[in-house]
Amino acid sequence: MDSSATSTRREATRQKLYEAAVTLIAEQGFSATTVDEIAERAGVAKGTVYYNFASKSVLFEELLRHGVGLLTASLKEAAEKAVGSGGRQVDALDAMIRAGLGFIDRYPAFTQLYVAELWRTNRAWQSTLMVVRQQAVAVVEDVLRAGVENGELSEEIDIPLTAAALVGMVLVAALDWQAFQPERSLDDVHSALSRLLQGRVSGGH
């Protein structure tokens, strides 16, 4: 059989397993979710889960890598596009806020899991989670650093903490939007966070 076709089919199967796992775990928690349920939700045989992932923990660890990898790529692409079209680094940050909101809007269950897992300890995948979190934050750090270097941003800003704060702001604001203010549009939420980023909350111009 054509190896590329096999690879494509396997990737599609893994995607189905990711989606089934993330939905179930968001609904009922990691411990309560069984491999049988994941297989059933994905519409595959139980053996298929173990063929693709050694265990439920490995599946979840890969799920975290996969999801945060998508988020990181989305942030990076948004920043590069903004700067590539002549924007400033602040425009790149603004574009990343929108991209982050868009990602969370597409993958709300994954985002809930990711935020919940950040605060748990003694998980088998804790070190993986720290690594992938840092990859996402590093994209924002790069833009902040470039803004400081070109004089657009103050040299006094704490780049690692500011980057983490921006990522955290988008995650928490988006979850709040979906849970408590779902009637608001993505444009509306982005506009509010954009004003915060531009420092216009106090009424300055």
Characterise the protein shown here.
The protein is an all-alpha fold. The chain is 77% helix and 0% strand. It contains nine helices and no strands. The protein has helices at 3-28, 35-42, 46-52, 56-84, 89-106, 108-118, 126-149, 159-180, 186-197. The longest helix has 29 residues, at 56-84. The radius of gyration is 19 Å and the shape is elongated. It comes from Streptomyces longisporoflavus. Keywords: DNA-binding, Transcription, Transcription regulation. Residues 11-71 form the HTH tetR-type domain. This is TetR/AcrR family transcriptional regulator. Residues 34-53 bind DNA.
Broad structural category = mainly alpha
> How big a fraction of the residues is strand?
under 5%
Radius of gyration: 19 Å
Main beta sheet, described?
A: none
Question: How many individual β-strands?
Answer: 0
Specify the helix fraction band.
Answer: over 70%
H/E order of the elements? Answer: HHHHHHHHH
User: In one word, what is the shape?
Assistant: elongated
State the low-pLDDT regions, or none: 201-205
Contiguous helical run count: 9
In whole angstroms, the N-to-C terminal distance is 63 Å
| Average pLDDT rating | 90
DNA-binding region: 34-53
Organism: Streptomyces longisporoflavus
Pfam families: TetR_C_24, TetR_N
Keywords: DNA-binding, Transcription, Transcription regulation
